[in-house]
């Protein structure tokens, strides 16, 4: 980073020395670049401002005028609960798998095919979410029905698997699993980059002392990549929090606030609720939905900024 | 297959010098095959045979057998190494199953819905039948407008970051571009709706609104990738041009951008691939419509992703025909995304050889 800066400055000096004057083309070009930069900041500010403007009426109007006749906070709370539950479930499943995938690609697979494998994982990230939704409802859901029935029978005493098990597969568990598949490539991309950058001298040192490959990974690669894995997990969590279509399609919602993952009655998520209700809403209901969008924006913003802060800190070290 | 599990017993019984020997090269594969065969036999005997269960229990049994065998012959540390390697590989395999299942299912279920009609006619006034031509055209128009908005802003911002930027504006931009990559797509859609509602009144639905929403998602992707390729343009090229007295804007326009050109194209293609299948932001901005509309500034506009969602959600009287069309739209989308990704990779590969 710094090297680029200094040479650019040197370049400017050189250009100034050779030309002696700032040319018009230079002025136009550099101003366009600054305008583009400012436009983007304005755009982001615009996102926040317009959501606040349009969402504001939902905060000021009385409960009777809002959808479902509830206070805004009572309206958004179960949705926020569902959002966090689905995302947490996804992260719980995806993060260990993503770490394993990253380890496999960087340290276990033969280097010849590792690149191709990495590319295959990246392809998972390129598939549109609507297709994950269709796959979840038509393929994974039905396939999960017997598993969920088994969970209800054998592990019904655990609150998560209380049941009654859904017969359609439109449950929080399936939605969480699909979200896990969707965020796995994001988490694993971050982890992969960190694992691949583990200093060679550490790895070779460990192996020279007689460590097996697993011991080398445990003692050098994993500690080195720890903060990256955490930030990758938070980035994935952010994506899962805001993911809309897969949840909209898969989850059968009832507004219930429950940890029961395998039943037909599930809490909705903020994003899915918007996608389901927005097309048929008007008036204050729209404002309420936009206000929930603002809440979602705030939640993902905090998550992502946390992840970026961890990345920035580990880069400094 | 049965015989493959014999070495397991032979090894653990005969090798008494614990922790010094080593397993033969085929040991892992033999244990895997043997375990799978044993599990399959048991499952068949109990009548509960499925491929999934065989894989799950086969992997578990393999891990146990491999650990025991290796511990007996090679000692606990090597045994741990082998078991963890097996687990990691199994986890990778598990993670790959959805990709293959998804591509396979989309192809299998999508092909019946593909027909000449699907690509050539819209669905205006047809019950159950009709095609998706309006959705395909809508996808192209919405994506094209989003690209026209995002690419100039994104590339100029990347030029700013890499060539001009200093101080607080640069730091702020770097940070907020990161923040922008995390904006949920539905929130981008709500933003576009809120923006246009202010000017055109409630209930407004336009193709260009979708493009604005998609731009919010696309711009950070373009900036990130453009910044990466601008960074790797060798500095000696810039310095040589400066030494000849070339003004800075000309250095950027004539030296930096052409050198990075293929890389920029790759980045744009990846960015398009990322937004072309977006559904949620379009659901709240472009609306749902059955007829062809090529004007993004006038009226509702259909697109493939929303079309697929809608055919699934409101299948109407001919349920299976609608589902077929939903899958056909999904297949078309996945084909577009894959083609863009592969093409981007090919462009990038050529580019990498050029820069040396």
Descriptive report:
- The complex is a heterodimer of chains A (317) and B (356).
- By secondary structure, chain A is an all-alpha fold.
- Chain A is built from eleven helices and no strands.
- Chain A has helices spanning 2-19, 24-60, 72-108, 111-126, 129-155, 172-196, 200-208, 213-242, 245-250, 270-277, 284-316.
- Chain A is flat.
- The two termini of chain A are 15 Å apart.
- The relative contact order of chain A is 0.14.
- Mean pLDDT of chain A is 85; it is low at 1-5.
- Residues 1-17 of chain B have low confidence and may be disordered.
- In chain B, helix 10 (235-243) packs antiparallel against helix 11 (248-275).
- Chain B folds into two domains: 2-109, no CATH class; 116-355, MetI-like (MetI-like fold, Orthogonal Bundle).
- At the A-B interface, helix 1, helix 2, helix 3, helix 4 and helix 5 of A face helix 4, helix 6, helix 7, helix 8 and helix 9 of B.
Layout of secondary structure:
The complex is a heterodimer of chains A (317) and B (356).
Chain A: H1 2-19, H2 24-60, H3 72-108, H4 111-126, H5 129-155, H6 172-196, H7 200-208, H8 213-242, H9 245-250, H10 270-277, H11 284-316
Chain B: H1 6-14, H2 27-46, H3 51-74, H4 76-110, H5 116-120, H6 133-164, H7 167-181, H8 185-200, H9 207-231, H10 235-243, H11 248-275, H12 280-283, H13 304-313, H14 319-355
Helix pairs in contact in B: 1-3, 2-3, 3-4, 4-14, 6-9, 6-11, 6-13, 7-9, 8-9, 9-11, 10-11, 11-14, 13-14
Short synopsis of the structure:
By secondary structure, chain A is mainly α. Chain A folds into two domains: 1-60; 64-316, MetI-like fold (Orthogonal Bundle), CATH 1.10.3720.
What's the alpha carbon Rg of chain B, rounded to whole Å? 28 Å
**Number of discrete helical segments of chain A:** 11
CATH level-4 homologous superfamily of the largest domain in chain B: MetI-like
The tally of beta strands of chain A, per DSSP, is: 0
Q: Show the largest interface.
A: A-B, 103 and 105 residues
Give the CATH topology of the largest domain in chain B.
Answer: MetI-like fold
Name the structural class of chain A.
mainly alpha
What kind of sheet is the major sheet of chain A? none
**CATH level-two architecture of the largest domain in chain A:** Orthogonal Bundle
Biggest sheet layout of chain B: none
Strand percentage of chain B, roughly?
A: under 5%
The CATH class designation of the largest domain in chain B is Mainly Alpha
Shape of chain B: flat
Order of helices and strands of chain B: HHHHHHHHHHHHHH
Report the uncertain regions of chain B. 1-17
Domains of chain A, number: 2
Give helix and strand order of chain A, one letter per element, not per position. HHHHHHHHHHH
Any idea of the CATH class of the largest domain in chain A? Mainly Alpha
Q: Would you tell me which CATH topology of the largest domain in chain A applies? A: MetI-like fold
């Amino acid at each position: 980073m710094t090297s680029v800066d200094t040479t650019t400055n040197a370049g400017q000096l050189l250009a100034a020395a050779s030309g002696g004057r700032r040319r018009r083309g230079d002025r136009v070009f550099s101003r366009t670049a600054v305008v583009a930069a400012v436009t983007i900041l304005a755009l982001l500010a615009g996102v926040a401002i317009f959501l606040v403007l349009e969402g504001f009426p939902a905060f000021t109007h009385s409960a009777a005028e809002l959808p479902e006749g509830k206070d805004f906070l009572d309206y958004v709370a179960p949705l926020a609960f569902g959002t966090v539950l689905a995302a947490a479930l996804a992260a719980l499943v995806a993060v260990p798998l993503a770490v394993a995938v990253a380890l496999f690609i960087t340290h276990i697979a033969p280097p010849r095919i590792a690149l191709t494998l990495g590319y295959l994982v990246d392809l998972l990230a390129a598939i549109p979410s609507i297709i994950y939704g269709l796959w979840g409802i038509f393929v994974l859901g039905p396939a999960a029905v017997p598993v969920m029935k088994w969970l209800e029978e054998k592990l019904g005493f655990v609150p998560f698997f209380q049941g009654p098990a859904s017969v359609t597969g439109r449950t929080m568990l399936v939605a969480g699993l699909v979200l896990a598949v969707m965020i796995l490539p994001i988490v694993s991309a971050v982890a992969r980059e960190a694992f691949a950058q583990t200093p060679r001298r550490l790895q070779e040192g460990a192996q020279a002392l007689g460590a097996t490959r697993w011991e080398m990974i445990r003692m050098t690669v994993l500690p080195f990549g720890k903060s990256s894995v955490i930030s990758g997990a938070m980035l994935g969590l952010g994506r899962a929090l805001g993911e809309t279509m897969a949840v909209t399609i898969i989850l059968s919602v009832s507004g219930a606030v429950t940890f029961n993952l395998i039943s037909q009655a599930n809490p909705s998520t903020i994003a899915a609720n918007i996608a389901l209700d927005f097309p048929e809403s008007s008036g204050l209901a729209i404002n309420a939905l936009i206000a929930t969008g603002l809440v979602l924006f705030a939640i993902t913003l905090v998550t992502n900024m946390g992840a970026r802060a961890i990345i920035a800190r580990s880069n400094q070290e | 297959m049965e015989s493959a599990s014999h070495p397991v017993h032979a090894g653990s019984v005969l090798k008494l010098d614990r922790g010094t020997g080593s397993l033969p090269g085929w040991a892992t594969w033999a244990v895997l095959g043997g375990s799978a065969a044993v599990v399959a036999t048991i499952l068949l005997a109990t009548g509960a045979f499925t491929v999934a269960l065989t894989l799950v229990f086969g992997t578990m049994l393999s891990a146990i057998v491999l650990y025991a065998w290796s511990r007996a012959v090679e000692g606990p540390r090597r045994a741990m190494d082998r078991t963890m390697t097996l687990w990691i590989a199994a986890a990778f395999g598990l993670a790959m199953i959805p990709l293959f299942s998804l591509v396979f299912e989309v192809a299998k279920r999508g092909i019946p819905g593909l027909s000449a009609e699907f690509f050539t006619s819209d669905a205006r006034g047809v019950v159950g039948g009709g095609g998706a031509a309006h959705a395909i055209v809508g996808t192209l128009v919405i994506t094209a407008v989003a690209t026209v908005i995002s690419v100039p802003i994104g590339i100029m911002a990347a030029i700013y970051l890499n060539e001009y930027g200093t101080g607080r504006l640069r730091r702020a931009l770097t940070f907020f571009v990161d923040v922008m990559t995390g904006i949920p797509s539905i929130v981008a859609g709500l933003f576009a709706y809120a923006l246009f509602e202010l000017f055109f009144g409630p209930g407004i639905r336009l193709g260009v609104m979708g493009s604005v929403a998609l731009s919010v998602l696309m711009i950070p992707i373009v900036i990130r990738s453009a910044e990466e390729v601008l960074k790797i343009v060798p500095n000696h090229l810039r310095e040589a041009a400066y030494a000849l007295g070339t003004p800075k804007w000309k250095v950027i326009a004539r030296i930096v951008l052409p050198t990075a050109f293929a890389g920029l194209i790759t980045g744009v293609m990846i960015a398009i691939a990322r937004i072309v299948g977006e559904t949620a932001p379009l659901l709240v901005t472009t609306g749902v419509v059955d007829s062809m509309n090529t004007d993004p500034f006038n009226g509702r506009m259909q697109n493939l992703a929303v079309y697929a969602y809608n055919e699934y959600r409101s299948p109407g009287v001919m349920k299976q025909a609608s589902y077929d069309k939903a899958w056909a739209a999904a297949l078309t989308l996945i084909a577009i995304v894959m083609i863009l990704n592969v093409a981007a990779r090919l462009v990038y590969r050529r580019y990498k050889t050029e820069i040396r």
